[in-house]
Design brief:
With about 350 residues, the protein is of the alpha+beta class. It is built from nine helices and eleven strands. The chain has a five-stranded antiparallel β-sheet. Helix 1 packs across helix 2.
C-alpha cells in the first residue's frame, strides 16, 4: 500500500516563512538604527570637537591681545612712584610690572567663559642668537644639552661652513659639492645666516634629537640605555644682538655663559625673582644693570659682563587657548617700541 503524500491547499498561510521575514526585517531595522545612532554619536563628537577648537582658537588669539595690553600697561607700571598704590581691582598690574622690570611672564592663566588662556611673554634675548655664536659658546651649549663630545666637531664646523660665504669645507664641516649635492635630495649650502632655528635640520650633524631632544640614534649610555639629549631648540633664537637678557634667561641658557654652573645659575634666578610679599605682590629685585648683576653676584666670570644685558625690545609671545581638553597654540615674535607692537613672525599650531 502506497504512503499518502500530504498536500498543501493553494492559498494556505505559510506561517514559518512569514515569521522568518519578520525576524529578518527586525534585525535589518536594528542594524540600520544602530548605524544611524553611531553616525549621530560620531557627528556629535566631531561637532563638539570643532566647536571647542574654534573657541580655543579665539581664546589663543585673545591671549595675544592680552599681551599687547600688558606691554602698553608696563609703561604705566614703571611710572608709578614708590608711595603710590596700584588699584586693588587691577589684576594685571603685577604682570605689567614684571615686563617693565625686564622679567619674563611664564604660564599666566586667565579663565574666560568655559575655557582658559595660558600666556607667556619672554624677552627673546633670553635665548642665544645662533648666528653670533663662537666655538666656545657651542661647546657649552652642547655640554648643557648632553650631546657627546664626539659629535661636537662635525656639528660646530658644519654650521660654520653653512653660515660663512666661501665654499671651502672645514676638516669636519660640509659644503655643497662635498656633501649636500651628494644627498638623495640634494640642495646647496646657504652660505649666509640662518633665518630660523629650525633651519639647523638642513645642516650636517644636526638631527631632530639634537634640536628637540630625545634618544641619539644607536648611541648608548654606560647602562646600555639609549643616550638621551635634552635638545638645543629652547636655547637659541635668530633675533637680538647676541647678548643674553639676564633677567629673563632660563637656567639652561644661563649655564651656557662662561663659568656659570647650575649653582651660579640658580643664584642668579633666586636673586632676580625676589620674594613674595605678604600682600601678594612680588618684591622688585630684578637686575637694573650689568653692574648691578656683578655687584650682587660677585663670583661671576669677567667674560659674562660683555655677554649679558637687561634690556629687551623683542619678545616671544606664546598664547594657548584651552577648552574641554582641546588646545590651540599661537606664538609670535614681536617688537615693542614706542608703545607699538610690531609682529616679526607669526605661527599657529
Amino acid at each position: 500500500m502506497m504512503a499518502r503524500v500530504p498536500t498543501v491547499r493553494p492559498g494556505a498561510p505559510r506561517r514559518g516563512s512569514a515569521l522568518m521575514i519578520v525576524l529578518w526585517s527586525v534585525a535589518l531595522m536594528s542594524v540600520l538604527i544602530a548605524g544611524f545612532a553611531f553616525d549621530s554619536h560620531v557627528e556629535g563628537r566631531i561637532t563638539y570637537y570643532y566647536r571647542n577648537r574654534t573657541k580655543a582658537d579665539y581664546l589663543a588669539r585673545s591671549g595675544i591681545e592680552v599681551a599687547r595690553m600688558l606691554m602698553t600697561k608696563q609703561v604705566e607700571a614703571g611710572e608709578m612712584g614708590e608711595d603710590e598704590e596700584p588699584d586693588a581691582d587691577d589684576r594685571w598690574f603685577e604682570s605689567a610690572k614684571r615686563l617693565h622690570q625686564g622679567l619674563a611672564i611664564r604660564g599666566l592663566k586667565e579663565a574666560l567663559g568655559d575655557g582658559e588662556i595660558i600666556l607667556s611673554i619672554v624677552p627673546e634675548p633670553a635665548r642665544l642668537n645662533v648666528n653670533q655664536l663662537k666655538e666656545d659658546d657651542w661647546e657649552r651649549i652642547l655640554e648643557v644639552s648632553n650631546v657627546p663630545e664626539d659629535f661636537w666637531p662635525e656639528i660646530i664646523e658644519s654650521l660654520q661652513d653653512w653660515i660663512d660665504t666661501d665654499d671651502e669645507a672645514r676638516v669636519d664641516g660640509a659644503e655643497t659639492e662635498d656633501y649636500y649635492a651628494t644627498l638623495e635630495s640634494p640642495y646647496m649650502a646657504k652660505n649666509g645666516p640662518l633665518d630660523t632655528v629650525g633651519e639647523l635640520l638642513l645642516v650636517k650633524g644636526f638631527s631632530r634629537a639634537i634640536l628637540f631632544g630625545g634618544p641619539l640614534g644607536e648611541i648608548e649610555d654606560e647602562n646600555g640605555a639609549p643616550w638621551m639629549v635634552t635638545g638645543i631648540n629652547d636655547l637659541l633664537t635668530t633675533y637680538g644682538d647676541g647678548k643674553v637678557n639676564i633677567n629673563a634667561a632660563s637656567q639652561r641658557v644661563l649655564m651656557t655663559l662662561p663659568d656659570v654652573d647650575e649653582l651660579v645659575a640658580g643664584a642668579i634666578i633666586e636673586e632676580r625673582e625676589g620674594v613674595l610679599l605678604e600682600e601678594g605682590a612680588q618684591e622688585d629685585t630684578s637686575f637694573e644693570s650689568v653692574g648691578d648683576l656683578v655687584a650682587r653676584i660677585p663670583d661671576l666670570s669677567p667674560d659674562v659682563k660683555s655677554r649679558v644685558t637687561v634690556d629687551s625690545s623683542i619678545y616671544r609671545i606664546t598664547s594657548i587657548g584651552r577648552v574641554g581638553g582641546v588646545m590651540r597654540r599661537v606664538w609670535c615674535i614681536a617688537e615693542h617700541e614706542q608703545g607699538r607692537l610690531r609682529f616679526l613672525r607669526w605661527r599657529e599650531e
